[in-house]
Design a protein that fits this description.
The protein is an alpha+beta fold and 144 residues long. The protein has one domain. The protein is 51% helix and 21% strand. A three-stranded antiparallel beta sheet has the order 1-2-3. Helix 4 runs parallel beside helix 6 and helix 5 packs antiparallel against helix 6. The longest helix is centred in the middle third of the chain and has 24 residues. It is elongated and about 50 Å long.
Length: 144
């Protein structure tokens, strides 16, 4: 989790400070079919409301053997972290066109303080429902 803390800090450094947006990566202990299981979870909240939730919004069949489910969860969390790090390291042009399977880049890009108000309408048009929520919140906070 130490590496997550570093990545989380880098993400918070680029977020619009007026937004109440939080991003978390945690591990839950879960009593599963094979005894105790550890399930990773990525979630993003905006003003206390969960707007991104992995794995909840990306179900994995419980019919899969535990080892396959576990591998799927952990590899996806790793890929999400790598995607976020790639976004943070990308140049301006690349950041504006990046996409990912989960849609977390849309959310982070919409909250990125380096993305100015002139680009909000464009992001709103092409963004996910969650990214639109972030843009609406940024617009609301910029008026106050």
């Amino acid at each position: 989790m130490k590496q997550w803390s570093k990545l989380q800090k880098r993400i918070y450094n680029i977020l619009d400070p007026k937004l109440d947006l939080q991003i978390h990566c945690v591990v839950y202990r879960h009593d599963g079919f094979c005894g105790e299981e550890y399930v990773p979870r990525y979630f993003v909240t905006l003003s206390g409301e969960i707007i991104f939730d992995f794995p909840k919004n990306y179900p994995v069949s419980l019919q899969q053997p535990y080892e396959e489910r576990e591998k799927c969860f952990w590899s996806a969390v790793s890929e999400i972290s790598e995607t976020l790090a790639k976004y943070l390291n990308a140049g301006r042009e690349e950041r504006m066109t990046m996409t990912d399977y989960w849609g977390i880049i849309d959310i982070i890009r919409a909250a990125d303080r380096r993305v100015g108000a002139r680009q909000w309408n464009k992001l709103y048009e092409i963004g996910s429902k969650e990214a639109k929520m972030v843009i609406e919140s940024r617009k609301k906070h910029s008026l106050s």
